[in-house]
Each structure stands twice: as C-alpha cells, then as structure tokens.
Amino acid sequence: SGDTWEYSTDGGNSFISGTGNSFVLASGTYGANDIQIKVSGSATIIKYTSSITIDTLAPSFTSAATAEVEANTEASTTIYTAATDDNTVTYTLKAGEQQDKFTISNTGELKYKQAQTQAGTHTVTIIATDIAGNTAEKTVSVSVVDIGLSTSITWNNIG
C-alpha cells in the first residue's frame, strides 16, 4: 500500500522510521505506553499498554567446571549440580560428548546412568536455557576415582 510507519520506544517523544513490517527492541524494560507505532496518513497511534522486558542476555554459569565421584557410586547419586545467575533456567545435555553416560534434571542435577566401576575422566557439556530462550554452555569434567583401601594384619602371640 506504500504507507510508511514509525515507532517509538520512549513514549512518543521521538519516532524512528520503520522498514518492512517489524522492528527489533533492544534488551531492557519498557514501561506501559513506551512502545508506540504510527502510520503515515493516520491520526491513530498504537500504544502497547503493558510494560515489557526484552531479555537477550544468556544465563551465566556459577558452578565449577569439575566434579569428582568415587568408583561404584550408585547411579541415582547426584554427582554435580549446575548453577547459573538466573533462577528460571532449565538444563539439558549437549548431544554427543559422553551424553550416553549421563542424565540431567531440569534443575541441574547431573547423574551417571550407570555406576562407574573404573577410574577415569568423562567430559559432558551442560546447556542452560532461560525463559526467554537464551542459552549458555558449560563443559564439565567428571573424574571417577578409585579409592583404594589398605589393610594390614599384625599377628601377635602366635604359637
């Protein structure tokens, strides 16, 4: 139709020429009526009457990059707990990278699928996804250690 349009992010104090049929808001919080759209030749200004928050920041991991577990630890035991600076994240495992050995809950509890019987190191990448769909990855190295028990016997008064 050839109409031009403009949008404002500051309550109508200034307008920016629009292109196409959409625009991208910068990360941040916008109050009620901050977002406005007007089309040339129309007296109507469309106002977004609720506040809105645009979140483009990925969560940041605060948990360590290593974990240690004893060999033969029950598979149901949590061996690592992922944590971020955002409480509204869910956790998944990146495809490949030893994913077949581990399971992770939505709350970040990492467990082996089976008890590990031999010492070794396994690497897995955890993905945190926040409510806005932003993602972050953390590679974790899990060491399985074999705790050897030493036993000594002392024979006294034999014979």
TrEMBL record:
InterPro entries in the record, alphabetically? Answer: Big_13, Cadherin-like_sf
Species the sequence originates in: Bathymodiolus thermophilus thioautotrophic gill symbiont
List the protein's name.
Bacterial Ig-like domain-containing protein
Under the heading CDD domains, the entry gives: Cadherin_repeat (cd11304)
Q: Which Pfam families does the record match to this protein? A: Big_13
Task: Name the GO cellular-component terms.
Answer: membrane
For this protein, the record's Gene3D superfamilies field holds: Cadherins
Parts forming coiled coils: none
The Gene Ontology terms for molecular function here are:
calcium ion binding
Q: Where is the Bacterial Ig-like domain?
A: 77-144
